[in-house]
Amino acid sequence: MKKSHFIYLHIGYWLILWLKELLFGFPTYNINELTFPTVSSVLTVKLITLIFPLCIFYTNFMLLVPKLVRAKRIFLYILSVLILFLILSPIHQYVYAIILPQKFGWYSYVYLDKLNFWLSFQTLLFENYVYIFFSIAISYVSDYFEAQRKQQELEKEQAVTELAYLKSQINPHFLFNTLNDIYALTYQQAKEAPEAVLKLSALLRYMLRESNDKYAPIEKEIDYIKNVIELYEIGQKGHAYINFELDGVITKQKIAPLILINFVENAFKHGIVNDPLTPIVIRLKINESSLSFSVTNSKNNDYKDSVGGIGLRNVERRLALIYPNQHSLIVNNENDTFTIKLSLTWK
Description:
This protein is α+β, with helices and mostly antiparallel strands and 347 residues long. The chain folds into two domains: 3-149, no CATH class; 190-345, Heat Shock Protein 90, CATH 3.30.565. It has helices at residues 3-24, 39-49, 51-69, 74-104, 117-187, 193-209, 218-235, 261-270, 310-322, and strands spanning 28-29, 106-107, 216-217, 242-248, 254-255, 280-286, 290-298, 327-333, 337-345. It has a five-stranded mixed β-sheet, with helices on one face. It has a two-stranded antiparallel sheet with strand order 1-2. It has a two-stranded antiparallel ribbon with strand order 3-5.
């Protein structure tokens, strides 16, 4: 619960209590005085009488419970509560025996002439002891919500830190592979080298600018995937067979940046890309409310990754953090083919 909401609950409670007193707490007036109380005098009197429960509640809520009850100093706490009532008793006597009768003609007690210090103490204790227990309960409830809020903030900070760490693992992996390809093209003085440098520049610009945001336009993510595919094809000198199929209408949909490219890179890394009979097939279907993405590749059984599957584990973790209960990831690892199918709904 937000702190502002808790404050509103406090204000609302005391306002309701004040209104209840206005409606049902009728005063006893001196029948010898043929005067009827004005609205302003009734409002003022009820506000004055509300001072005592307010003082008892918030002294206990903000001072005694945090300092003594939570420290398990119960005897000192009980003693402090009694001292609080003893301090308020002469004030209570003065208000009800002098101020309210003389200033407003308000006689709350039929035994007004007998209202002394000890009677005020007993009356004050009897009428307001419930606020002691009520303030203790509210104090522990507020502590619970505050602990929940701090836990949520901590989890959010941890999620942000973890996402940043996962991204730092994704980007260098792709960058190093691409730089190796461009180095080979440059060394061979291939005509594709300048184009490859420009595409890499566009990719880095997207990584640095868009990936810092939680969501990026799906159109830019698609352009990023296309550039990666074209850059990979350049590095393979035309011996890469990749089919990228796009279906749907692109409007203002947004997606977590760099969330799809891991599956594509995984297919490049572990699949067979130079066989025209078994191309890598990438399908992306988009509508207004959801996205379906699949990548299928033939398995390269001669390639063994000593690290093994870090990229897929990273993207699964990112999906769990960014799209909890909003995504479905199916991995089919068959004898000759490897397929992933991702479905997610837009936020």
